[in-house]
Design goal:
The chain is an alpha/beta fold and 526 residues long. It has 18 helices and 20 strands. Helix 5 packs parallel to helix 7, helix 5 packs across helix 16 and helix 14 crosses helix 15. The chain starts with a helix and ends in a 7-residue tail after the last helix.
């Protein structure tokens, strides 16, 4: 009877209580015989700041905050799914960040209960990549612009995003780095690319890259480091020699942000074409999670600058493959040399004795002063977004009207739009007073010079496929003109041509036999 009576009694609610103070987090065991029990220390102070979920209202977790022994603050977005086991993943990440956790095995359950049950009222929204989220721009340590009502946080695999540091002031960067770029078109263009990267999404332009090609002493790395100083520390630029998976991770944390990649010659010639296309296309590989389920592929949209002694097309050919026209309009090849025996430079400032000295000056100052210009650009832009976006579109339209012919090939039009976007973005940054270049002229002219260099290397504004065929014909004529083309007035008995492709006139004209043209010259099309 008493047993039945006990079953009818409501079960006593499990007593779970925690205390958090500057000394740490404590578990308060239930009192015994109305006598309070001694608190059990779980860890050094660990505050649960907010509940977190992504923009699909899944991926729930907690924003945790603590300070290490050096009084440096750390933040970590903990996935609630990691509590399904013994919480080892969570403890490992917290320990790596300097949190002190009790080593007693019996304490672990109390620690997990603290994370699962401690009341928290604030909520936050997590995003998996940098860049635009609604009207705001998300960085690892800051959200710039008018964010939604709730807090927005970046939850990426590499949350400590090296390369986005800030040093010096905006004025110091402008006076010691940016202002000296004026008059040097490739430098101005590279810096303008950093301001163009966050505009691609807003202008509905696909991801793309500009590859500066030239010899080892031309100053290509200087271009990349000066451009990188707009957004962060230019030391230790990412390099092409990373695996495609590694570059995918790098690209995913450069969504809407300029990515600089040095030395394309170090890449695997057999895979570089696909890797470069992946970067521009903005979609990673499909992978499985720990449960074997397919995860959505990583996505990004970035503008990247690249450097190397040879072009993308040349390194793809070294790998035994053929470059595709679609790759050439997504990864735009530019000559790094300005043609004035100064490498990338058109002119030198009075204080520089030579190009090497000027390059060292720019690189040294870029490492001292960096990371301020990009954030100021975003603050000014987001504060007046719609009018400034309209201005960029107008500048873009004006540039295309001035520098693009009506009958240009579709591929040329696509590339021209990319140059116009860089021109307009650099012009806007100048009008904001960020670059020190004065008015919009420097950025607009720099884009024109670089675009003209691309058109010249390409062979005109016509179809790329037609240009490639003509180039192949020219190559064959130059290589075999003497051995396989018979002079028109040679007597039959004097003719020693063994593998005749046709005939040639004394004035330099070549006449190709119809069948030989199909067999040899048209082979390039197959």
């Amino acid at each position: 009877m008493s047993k039945a009576k006990d079953q009818l009694q409501p079960k006593q609610k499990e007593f779970i209580a925690f205390k958090v103070n500057d000394k740490g987090v404590y578990y308060l065991p239930p009192p015994k015989d109305d006598e309070p029990s001694n608190p059990i220390w779980l860890c050094s102070r660990l505050d649960i700041v907010a509940r977190v979920r992504n923009d699909q209202n899944s991926g729930h977790g907690l924003l945790l905050e603590w300070k290490d022994k050096d009084n440096i603050k750390h933040q970590y977005i903990m996935s609630q799914a990691d509590l399904a086991g013994d919480g080892a993943i969570i403890r490992r990440n917290l320990l790596e960040g300097g949190l002190q956790i009790s080593t007693k095995r019996a304490v672990r359950e109390h620690f997990s209960n603290y994370l699962m049950n401690y009341p928290v009222d604030k909520v936050a929204r997590s995003v998996s990549r940098t860049g635009w989220y609604k009207e705001a721009f998300v960085l690892s340590d800051e959200v710039i612009g008018e964010a939604p009502e709730e807090r927005v946080l970046l939850q990426a695999e590499a949350n400590d995003l090296a390369g986005f540091e800030q040093a010096g002031t905006l004025e110091q960067w402008r006076d010691n780095v940016s202002i000296h770029c004026k008059g040097n078109h490739r430098l101005v263009f590279a810096v303008s690319c950093a301001f163009a990267a966050p505009m691609l999404n807003l202008l509905n332009i696909g991801g793309l890259g500009f590859h500066f090609r030239g010899n080892s002493s031309s100053g290509k790395t200087t271009l990349l480091e000066v451009a990188k100083s707009v957004i962060g520390n230019p030391s230790d630029l990412p390099r092409w020699r990373a695996t495609s998976n590694g570059l995918e991770s790098v690209a995913s944390i450069h969504n809407d942000i300029l990515l600089c990649l040095d030395e394309i010659g170090e890449a695997d010639a057999k895979t570089i074409g696909g890797t470069a296309y992946m970067l521009a296309n903005g979609v990673g590989k499909i992978r499985s999670d720990r449960s074997g389920n397919l995860r959505p592929p990583a996505k990004w949209k970035t503008l990247f600058l690249s450097s190397g002694e040879i072009s993308l097309a040349d390194i793809v050919r070294e790998g035994g493959k053929k470059i595709k026209a679609g790759q050439l309009v997504r990864i735009i090849d530019l000559p790094a040399d300005a043609g004035n025996d100064l490498g990338i430079f058109d002119t030198l400032p009075a204080f520089a004795k030579d190009g090497a000295g000027f390059s060292d000056y720019l690189r040294d100052n870029a490492k001292k002063h960096h990371g301020r210009a990009f954030r100021e650009y975003l603050r000014l832009f987001t504060a007046n977004r719609e009018p400034l976006l309209k201005l960029i579109r107008e500048l873009q339209k004006d540039w295309l009207k001035q520098h693009l012919v009506d009958n240009a090939d579709g591929q040329v039009k696509r590339v021209a739009k990319a140059f116009a976007t860089v021109a307009a973005s650099g012009a806007l940054a100048s009008e904001m007073g960020i670059t020190g270049w004065g008015d919009a002229t420097a950025a607009i002219e720099a884009a024109r010079v670089c675009f003209d260099g691309w058109i010249k290397s390409r062979g005109g504004m016509g179809s790329q496929e037609e240009a490639q065929v003509l180039k192949q014909v020219q190559t064959i004529l130059e290589a075999d003109g003497a051995a396989k083309f018979t002079f028109r007035n040679v007597r039959m008995q004097d003719d020693q041509t063994m593998y005749r492709l046709g005939f040639r006139h004394e004035n330099g004209d070549f006449f190709i036999l119809q069948n030989r043209f199909r067999e040899v010259f048209c082979l390039y099309l197959h």
